[in-house]
Amino acid sequence: MAEEPIVGTPPSTVTNPPRQWGAAAPPNSYPDPDVVVVRPEFRRLTVGNTPLQRLWTGSLWAEGPAWSGQGRYLVFSDVGGDVQYRWTQDDGRMTTFRAPSRNSNGNSFDFSGRQISCEHFTRRVVRWEHDGSLTVLADRYDGKRLNSPNDLVPHPDGSVWFTDPHYGNSLYEGQPDAGGDLDPRPGAPDAGGQAQELANAVYRIAPDGQIAKLTDEVAYPNGLAFSPDHRRLYVADTGPGPRDIKVFDVAPDGTLTGGRVFTDMVVDGIKCGPDGLRVDVYGNLWCASNAGSGALGYSGVLIFDPGGELIGRIRLPEACANVCFGGPKRNRLFMTASQSLYALYVNTQGATPG
């Protein structure tokens, strides 16, 4: 029987001695020292005899992991590399999935098993149909071009909810806005060349294709996730201001009310930056964390209970951008972190597909 982790330790930001990664690295002891139990409630979500694994490295900025239950594979984006990768469960093989990817960022699979993606370059939300064809779900609101859709989440009613900050207005992650010093039409016939027209906001695409703006009170909306009953929506605010996570009540008509701070993302006095989000079947929020190079060990994943209390941490040596639950039992947490893909078996399951 594996030894259970000690609650609240270790307070240090890295393992001692420092952990080594890669196929030739010596194995770590159980329980994994980088799975940190902050509160006793987190123990039931951990597996004492499983390691935190780096499955692959080689991307520029890894984002948007999403699990295909039908295909038994994980797809994720390398935003700067302009490619989507696929990691296959059966043989652990990594292959190029789509290139170019139009600087795709967030990905998910809807309740019919179709991949939905946010494309920075084309400033749109798209869906890949079962026959391989592409459907554009949204590229405008109120007649104006979107900024750069960042992340998205499906709803059981067939709608798709997404965030639209302006992070993709760069040569590296998309295309620059018109009016600056850089060429706004870089090397592609469908480059935009328009200036930003819309405020950063959160949107809902109805099953009939109608697009509604839900809120623009989140300064830099990024990752988002529903509670298991779909009555709450969590939204990460990743801008230079709050850098917190807000939660809204979801009304039966799909509107949002009662926006409030869920967590300020301060851990041990360290301000962590939120990014991608997922919720497990117990309602716990698993949040990607980027604490910067000066706070090694606070980057990774932060786990909050439904009341906003931090209960656990997963420490990674790179800034984590996004997470998802996958595997045949939906009990494996996949983490895209800067240049690498990580995974950890957990004793819970993702509340939604993808």
TrEMBL record:
InterPro entries: 6-blade_b-propeller_TolB-like, SGL, SMP-30/CGR1_Lactonase. One of its GO terms (molecular function) is gluconolactonase activity. The keyword Signal does not apply. SUPFAM superfamilies: Calcium-dependent phosphotriesterase. The keyword Hydrolase applies. Its EC number is 3.1.1.17. Keywords: Hydrolase. Residues 61-338 form the SMP-30/Gluconolactonase/LRE-like region domain. Residues 1-29, 172-193 are annotated as: Disordered. It holds the Pfam family SGL. PANTHER family: LACTONASE DRP35 (PTHR47572:SF4), LIPOPROTEIN-RELATED (PTHR47572). This is Gluconolactonase. It comes from uncultured Thermomicrobiales bacterium.
